[in-house]
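Let us work through a complete example step by step.
Step 1: write down the sequence.
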Amino acid sequence: MQLTKHSALERLTALGMDDMPVMEYTPNRCIINADWFKLYSALRREFMASLTDSFEEIAFLNLPKEEFMNLIMGKQLPENTSLRFRIPLIWGGKIDIDNMFMCLTFPQSHNLDRFIIEQSNAKTVFLPNPAKKIYISTNLANGGAGGNSTSDRLSQSAFFASGRGNE
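Step 2: predict the structure and record it as tokens.
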């Protein structure tokens, strides 16, 4: 399906991601190198370790201390989170930190897959391009009654990060 920028943004709104910016891209179908997964695995750890500048976004994930530490130390991705390529490898994307972002697996990553697959035969596609390394939809970021407040989670994140070198 060939979308316009306006229809792409409308589709993302229907998928619950009305705040997701997009970039227009002409797919350059290519062959992926056989060692892509080895390179990706190393990059995953590097990307997760680079998230120390993303405490505000991490706070919205409400991670327990152990999962938070494993994330920023590049050991393990928390449950229900995914790392995504901004430009898929098959369309010419690079295995590079600047081509990655993190989001919730459900519903965000699942819906982004649908959004991209719907455009698979288009000459020009619109790809998700969040401004930050972690995408948290404003539909999910408002929190709700009964949970920890954002300011509490931010102060906990800063506290955990300050002790990172001691563990």
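Step 3: interpret the result. The first helix runs from residue 5 to 14.
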